[in-house]
Design a protein that fits this description.
single chain, alpha/beta, SHC Adaptor Protein, six-stranded mixed β-sheet, two-stranded antiparallel ribbon, 2 helices, 8 strands, globular, SH2_dom_sf, SH2 domain
C-alpha cells in the first residue's frame, strides 16, 4: 500500500473520465487527485490527474521495484524518487510540478493546490 487509501486526494473508485470531468468542474489551476491507473500494471499503479490552464494532465506514477520507491512520468535520468505516493503530493504542494503537453509540445508548471473529490 502506497499510503494512499486514507488520503482526501485519493479517488479510489474513479476512472479517467470521471477524474477529468471532476477537474474540469473544479476549473481551478492546481486542482488534482490521484486515481488508480487504467491498466492493471503493478509498475504503474496510480495516476496523478492535474488541472492547469483549462487542461487536464494524466501523469503516471511509477513503482520502482528495485528501490521500492515511486516516481512520476516516464523514467528519466536524475528523476526524483519518493518513498510513498503521499510524499509526491506533499513535495508538489511545495514545489512546482512540470506539466508536459506532448501534443502541443509545451511545458507548464503548477503546484498541487486544490484537492478535488469525485462525487
Amino acid at each position: 500500500d502506497a499510503g494512499v487509501h486514507s488520503k482526501a486526494w485519493y479517488a479510489a473508485t474513479c476512472d479517467r473520465k470521471m477524474a477529468e470531468d471532476a477537474l474540469y468542474r473544479s476549473n481551478k489551476d492546481g486542482s488534482f487527485l490521484i486515481r488508480k491507473s487504467s491498466g492493471q500494471d503493478s509498475r504503474q499503479p496510480y495516476t496523478l490527474v492535474v488541472f492547469y490552464n483549462r487542461r487536464v494532465y494524466n501523469i503516471p506514477i511509477r513503482f520502482i521495484e528495485s528501490t521500492r520507491q515511486y516516481a512520476l512520468g516516464r523514467e528519466k535520468s536524475g528523476e526524483e524518487r519518493f518513498d510513498s505516493v503521499a510524499e509526491i503530493v506533499e513535495n508538489h504542494q511545495r514545489t512546482s510540478l512540470v506539466l508536459i503537453d506532448s501534443q502541443n509540445n509545451t511545458k507548464d508548471s503548477t503546484k498541487l493546490k486544490h484537492i478535488v473529490r469525485v462525487s
